[in-house]
Amino acid sequence: MRVVDVLFVRKNADDTVTALELNDLDDDERAAFGSMQENLMGLLTPQDIVTLSNPLPADTSATIVLLEHQWLNHLEEAVERANGIIYPGGMIPHPAVQQVEQELTTAQSQDKP
Q: Which of 6, 25, 32, 44 is least crowded, fewest Cβ atoms below 10 Å from its Cβ?
């Protein structure tokens, strides 16, 4: 995985939101991020900031990190070589994963004599 964007967001008590990018930090603060800074692409938009900060409670801060799953590039290449099709989607919500795990556990226990 590779970090491609980082934002620091603060929602004040009056629900106003401020956001800082790494280039807004001073040299000492940026130094803590080392070579990761070279990969940052500035992909998060003002609309993304609004959307992602909406669920934050007032008077809190958060770090928003956009990750690239580089292993997907190899998967896409393999699927293309096999004349397959990739259907892009989002993350699977944790409750859905838990439900599938429970269903698998139930099915496996029913298969045992």
A: 32
